[in-house]
Amino acid sequence: MRLRLASYNVHKCVGLDRRRKPGRIARVLAALEADILVLQEVDLRLPPRPAALAREFAERASGLTALPFPLDGGPSFGWHGQTILVHPDIAVSRIRRLVLPGLEPRGALMAECRTGGGPLRVVAVHLGLIGRFRRMQLAAIGAAIGHREPMPTVVIGDFNEWSHRGGVEPLGPGFRLHAPGPSFPAARPLGALDRIAVGPGIHLVDCGIHAAAPARIASDHLPIWAEIRIGEEPAAADGPAIGS
Domain 2-238 carries which CATH code? Predict the structure, then answer.
């Protein structure tokens, strides 16, 4: 059984024309046809961080269900601007918010799921802008994974990393980092900032960048997608991993 994962930094729904148009973002979400979708920058930056992309709007566009990461009583759609949406057929047994170290407030989201292909842990990230803190943040995520029961795990999102080197060793043994292609800036992509790291027990079947209209103007990032199978060790068909 294949699962399609996708990640999209929606840039608070502000496009390259400097207009906030959630409708364009919704069209991109629908086109991704994901089973599991992680989003970054779904909330406005300043407290109380109201949603830039309404939860109901995102759910209707994607056909997925948003997990309850926002803190009770707040207006946010996400937590630290991030959220995870899953297909209604995917059962989620546990969710967790991870506070990450660094100069600026950062967090990661963890969801442990039961899919038709087996158990899967998804960690959604939006890492910091400074390399030293990105490494610390990956180490904190790796420690959190290490304290949980063994389970096939993917870490996906905006890594904010311009380097072509691997750098996922802090996540733990066996993780392979893949950059589907340049995703930033959306109009003329140069940097592969949006990536996916797959752990043991996951076969990366295919991955890519979604560049169809209106993605090249709806946000400053292009979305990435990846198709995986659970229960198989990475094989040659995965293609080269970053740093491998």
Answer: 3.60.10.10
